[in-house]
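Inputs:
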Amino acid sequence: DIQMTQSPSSLSASVGDGVTITCQASQDIKHYLNWYQQQPGKAPRLLISDASSLKTGVPSRFSGSGSGTDFTLAISSLQPEDVATYYCQQYDVLPPTFGQGTKVEIK
Amino acid sequence: QVQLEESGPGLVKPSETLSLTCSVSGASVIDYYWSWIRQPPGKGLEWIGYVYYSGNTNYNPSLRSRVTISMDTSKSQFSLSLTSVTAADTAIYYCVADRGSGWSWFDPWGQGTPVIVSS
């Protein structure tokens, strides 16, 4: 299986701060990378597909970049409703696998 | 707007079979692949497998020997069966839609149903 490693495991930032989460794949996955947001007590929801395509309805403060083995999820101005755990997921090779998650909190 | 709702027992005894059903509304079952994903308490996400309306399936090799996912198109439902469960199968189980290949873009998700394996 392809291993997906996220960093950091958790972070705390102030409202309005920019935040960056990285995801590294154990092998080249081209652009086959999604990002999900899981708010406390809720199911995950898709934010970004194909490494950088923002899903309709997702705020533009979220953005994704990267290809190959290194990917980034950025939040340009952290909002209280962004408190959540974020997961990356590869779909280049079966089985699809997820990162361990990055928990984002408000300072 | 696709909506998914899981149902099934919340408690299963060790060595028995876990059975869950997902009811689909707001979309035709032929337009998506249908997956199950689980999340053990406090842990990350694990893809279990998918079914297509044709009956085609694909499973995570780590669970393949114990998993069956099936579809009832007449009821717009799909089901998960996991045999010989242990405490390690305790998790929130989500049913998920995928417009891609069955293992690509998981969207949307059901609200999830918790399953505890305990005697």
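The first strand of chain A starts at residue 4 and ends at 7. Flag for discussion at group meeting.
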